[in-house]
Amino acid sequence: MKNLLIPGLLSVFLLAACDSGQEPPADDTAAEEPVAADPAPADEAGPPADTAETEVMEVVEESAAEPVETDAGDVPLMLAQADSPADRADWQFKEGQHFQRLVPTQPTVGGADKIEVAEFFWYGCNHCNDFEPLINRWAANKPANARFVRVPAMWNPIVKLHAQLYYTGEVLGKNGTLANPEEFHAAVFNEFHQRGNRLASESTIQSLFERFGVSADDFRKAWGSFEVAQKMRIAEDLARRYGITGVPAIVVSGKYRTGAAEAGGYPTLLEVIDELIERESVR
């Protein structure tokens, strides 16, 4: 099976994927331009400049908010509401220090029925590998009104290949072909970081799926499916809208962006997430 990445360039992509050296955008006031990011950990990476647009995302809706039109599929975006209980003075964490506020509020993966916590990650990132057990424990005990979603990074060929891997597993899990998607997700991290398998081609990725009972035919159907391609387009668009320049990164309700660098470590980051959920809950 044809490799999707030129072998001679693999080492370059692996080195670049966690630290591209790109400066974050300076202006965060428009939906078309990503929000300026805080300094990211040393092995984080920056995304490409252009992304595909999507019309299938649902928007986080807020009462008493006015829609702002953009040219990104004419998706109505909601302005963050000021002077609300969420802006009270006795919160532990501070905007501009522990998290950044996205204005206007951006679309989310799911609907407005729950407060969405989105984790941006890459299988090859050491920081994401370290954060994985912590965010998994948090997700298992998250507030009832919160939804946790993963969004893979999309900023160079090897990272996009792994995003396709992730969404192929998600699709196969939903249709019952992949028996345990969470176990498989953990196995991908282990494959990269403990076994040294960089999963740098479609054939090596297919072999991993086959170890989990997925036939070559089922793998190829999901791998090249419209559903996987659409999920990748959404991930790329969300990363641009949120101004993601490093992973792992957390976005709550399409409105607040944070990470370990801002929070001061992973345990504190989980506390920041909980407080941001509470802020949204009292609106």
Summarize the structure.
The chain is an alpha+beta fold.
Can you tell me about this structure?
The strands form 3 sheets. The protein has a 5-stranded mixed β-sheet with strand order 4-9-8-6-7, with helices on both faces. Strands 1-5 form a two-stranded antiparallel sheet. The chain has a two-stranded antiparallel sheet with strand order 2-3. Helix 3 crosses helix 6 and helix 3 packs across helix 7. It is of the alpha+beta class and 283 residues long.
Share in β-strands: 5-15%
Using the CA coordinates, give the radius of gyration: 19 Å
Q: Report the sheet with the most strands, covering strand number, pairing sense and barrel closure.
A: 5 strands, mixed
Low-confidence stretches: 1-17, 19-45, 48-83
Mean pLDDT over the full residue set: 80
The sequence of SSEs as H and E is HEEEEEEHEHHHHHEEHH
Overall shape: elongated
Order of strands, main sheet, comes to 4-9-8-6-7
* Fraction of residues in H or I helices: 25-40%
The count of β-strands is: 9
Oligomer state equals single chain
Structural class: alpha+beta
How many H/I helices?
Answer: 9
Distance N to C terminus: 52 Å
Name a few traits of the molecule.
elongated; 9 helices; alpha+beta; two-stranded antiparallel ribbon; five-stranded mixed β-sheet
Strand and helix map with partners:
Layout: H1 10-16, E1 58-59, E2 67-68, E3 77-78, E4 100-101, E5 107-108, E6 115-121, H2 126-140, E7 146-152, H3 157-174, H4 181-193, H5 202-211, H6 216-223, H7 226-242, E8 249-252, E9 256-258, H8 260-263, H9 266-281
Parallel strand pairs: 6-7
Antiparallel strand pairs: 1-5, 2-3, 4-9, 6-8, 8-9
Helix pairs in contact: 3-6, 3-7
